[in-house]
Design a protein that fits this description.
Shape: elongated
Radius of gyration: 31 Å
Order of helices and strands: HEEEHHEEEEEEEHEHEHEEHHH
Largest sheet: 8 strands, mixed
Strand content: 25-35%
Helix content: 25-40%
Oligomer: single chain
Number of strands: 14
Distance between the termini: 99 Å
Number of helices: 9
Length: about 325
């Protein structure tokens, strides 16, 4: 019989082998290119129509696809994936659309049409006027063809690159879309501050906010950038033309009161505003007037101490007078 393995060998045997890469391509009876990948330790066939077959390696290298593949819950039993379209952004995959055959462990079919585009960021500018304390935000007005609107106002946003640098992309988009240069240290990560770490609402900490979870993998992280500016500087931002011409961006800035942002048709703006206001209400973000408030509290505390000292002095004087025959007044003071 075989002897028992050494402890070190047994430990090594217990560690699962890393998942193999995609298999070599084959052609099925329908003319689709097939390659096999692993999801949760199970083989899954990925099919490509002829026009996208040469892009299969790039699809598997797409950060969004790799992240989704690794993070998929084990309750999903994926049998196959059919790639329906691939949009290239230069040398890399920008968007893909696919349909999968998926069920859960009870055998129920799960809706599985996915538009995959990966993570993105959005930035809420909060500008405070130095002269009067009014607060404003910046909207970028540009053509948004999917909405059918040539002039659509939304907050600055952009897709995250292959490196997954959320904060760097946020700062870059702010510079490109508004012309305002911001140090990444000045960005407040609203998503991180609002993370549901105790699981009160969601199961576990999610990477971001999902604006369209029924059909898209996109999750967003939201940032706030707060600046105190002179009224003249704020006025100069109104109607300013920005954007990256090479990317087809023609942007015009719009300045609105922060108190009117809740009327926006932009879901990003509403999410960012909700996070910002609730974090303020829960004191997770310092209020603009915190230093003034602290000074006011300190002044009130000093004033109370001063009044207490004056009353103590008066009380001592009255009691001293009472000892000399002024008892009625002292009795009134004690009462």
């Amino acid at each position: 019989c075989m002897s028992a393995p050494e402890p070190a060998a047994a430990a090594a045997a217990a560690v699962p082998a890393p998942a193999a890469g995609p298999s070599a391509p084959t052609i099925n009876a329908d003319g689709l290119t097939e390659r096999t990948i692993q999801i949760n330790g199970m083989d899954v066939v990925v099919q490509f129509p002829k026009e996208f077959a040469e892009l299969s390696d790039k699809v598997f290298e797409m950060k969004a696809f790799k992240d989704w593949q690794k993070a998929l819950d084990s309750e999903f039993l994926v049998k196959s994936i059919l790639i329906q379209s691939v949009d290239m952004f230069g040398p890399r995959v920008g968007f893909i659309k696919f349909k999968a055959q998926v069920s859960d462990k009870e055998g129920s079919t799960v809706p599985s049409i996915v538009f995959m585009r990966g993570a993105s960021v959005a930035v809420l500018f909060v500008l405070r006027c130095e002269e009067n304390g009014e607060q404003f935000t910046i909207l970028t007005v540009q053509a948004r063809f999917p909405t059918g609107k040539y002039h659509f106002a939304d907050i600055p946003a952009g897709m995250v690159d292959q490196n997954g640098d959320f904060t760097g992309v946020a700062a870059k988009e702010m510079k490109e879309e508004t012309g305002i240069e911001v140090n990444v240290k000045d960005l407040v990560d609203l998503t991180e501050l609002a993370s549901d770490r105790d699981g009160a609402v969601s199961q576990g900490v999610l990477p971001g906010v999902y604006p369209s979870c029924g059909g898209c993998d996109e999750y967003m992280r939201f940032y706030a950038c707060r600046k105190i500016m002179k009224l003249e500087e704020i006025e100069k931002l109104k109607g300013k033309l920005t954007g990256v011409a090479e990317e087809g961006e023609k942007i015009k800035l719009k300045i609105v009161s922060i108190h009117d942002l809740w009327k926006s048709a932009d879901a990003k703006a509403l999410i960012a505003l909700c996070l910002y206001e609730n974090l303020l209400a829960n004191w997770k973000i310092p209020r603009w007037d915190m230093s003034t408030l602290e000074k006011k509290i300190e002044a009130e505390q000093k004033a109370r101490k001063d009044r207490a000292g004056i009353l103590a002095q008066k009380s001592g004087a009255v009691l001293g007078h009472a000892g000399a025959g002024g008892g009625s007044e002292a009795g009134q003071l004690k009462g």
